[in-house]
């Protein structure tokens, strides 16, 4: 049989709906929280760098050699310069979608993980308070 303290469950649900801040906890926990956010920022910058440089290398391919950024069938009635421009825009738009989704997923996973860590810390502190009483 499980017994819930209704007041604490409501407080916990209320805390779940607010964005957590680590200010009320010890310095070690705050440093680890900040380290996770910094790590997420570095990973976001790396993903954005690859998202810009990767398509840029393919876009510059027609300037240094013959061919398209992405090799595909080219109809004869379309001028080469227009088709290269269309192919480049398609490649860059596709790469932008992939990288932006990756950055979004990275941010969501990291923020959910940090929120769960803060909630676990709060629950642990509540258990300590119960033992003291």
Automatic annotation (TrEMBL):
It is found in: Membrane. It is a multi-pass membrane protein. Pfam families: 7tm_6. GO terms for cellular component: membrane. The chain crosses the membrane at residues 42-64, 84-112. GO terms for molecular function: odorant binding; olfactory receptor activity. Keywords: Membrane, Olfaction, Receptor, Sensory transduction, Transducer, Transmembrane, Transmembrane helix. This is OR11.
